[in-house]
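Practice problem: predict the structure.
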Amino acid sequence: MIAETHPKQPHELRSWLVCLSAASFFLYEFIQMLCLNSMNGEVMAAFHISATELGWLSSVYFMSNVLFLFPAGQLIDRYSVKRLILIFMALCITGTVLFSQTTGFGLALFFRFITGIGSAFCFLCSMRLASRWFLPHRMALISGSIVTMAMLGGWIAQAPFAALVSLVGWRHALLFDAAFGVLLWLSILMIVREYPPEELRTYENDHSQLQRLGWVSSMKKAYGRKQNWLCGIYTDFMNLPIFLLGGLWGGLYLMQIQHLPKIMATQVAGMLFFGTIIGAPLVGYISDKLSSRKLPMWIGAIVSLVLILMLIYLQLDARTLSVIFFLLGLSTSTQVLSYPTVTESNPHALTAMSVSVVSFCVISGGAMFEPLFGWLMDLKWDQTIANGVRLYSNTDLYRGLLIMPIAFILAGLMLLGIRETFCKMFKEEKV
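Answer:
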């Protein structure tokens, strides 16, 4: 839990290479998580499903993630991170291939569930490696960079993936997606290492502490800390635009309400990810320089609230929508500061277990709010259908969008209870 337990400056380039290579698993999982936004019409038509059922098809991915987060944190802290990445990324690729070939909605749900299991491991593995390869005062920057990798995957899942779907169909597009996953898997196999060579003693010390503590006690320490839960809930609420607009409903909103063509709609939705791609490392860098986590988090919640209200209540053209989506991605990037805040507030040996609390909150939010959004749209749907796809009114979409301003207000309330770390590790008793 002190700076001496981390590698020093000579490993800077190698540290970035290892951690960003591991984060390519996070990038790949984000493509799987959000690709439904680029093919929701085709999928609804293929399986003859409603908006609520599409929401469940998306949320079952998050459900498997939630179920496996608990063992994921324990396994990552105790066993080979690289081996876990390779195993669960292979499972994700397999699920993607099977989903692309199924014709039954029940099997589609099951294969999406399989695909989502790996998502429980991708971010935690990256953060565990980052805690070994980087000094504590660099954690906000590396956390932001890891999230940037995920957002790059989110952008790939928008306009590029939509163009591929238009060219070859959604089933073949998923097969190309799986092939891309195999290439990333091979790069991880060749590049990723567990820890810097001279840090073997630190690695063994963490492992011995965990062995003494045991599974149940380590979970109690991580999941019993209020700071971890408040950070997790803040991140959950700030992340909702990624799930709701970038992951599933943004394309439908832009096409049916703003009357944008499909490719343009995915391009506008993709600006949300561009904003986060820039914002995540930028926010991390600013936070590290200011030696403050909470101040940028406050600013992000306030600005995000203003932007989402503009999106709901103002009539906007395509260019303005692109700017709003970009700025929303930029402002909600302050969610990444929860991860270094949690890392700095917990024993080093429990890094993955502690960060899993944040991931649990975020993924639980995705599993809950995506079907809720669809249910709110279906609530007063007027039964209009065109080409096998349900058409929704402005009122239907706005009813769902109201989830987000409420969430940003609640995110601000969470900050009242979060303790500022000033970018330093708290002095803790040994685990």
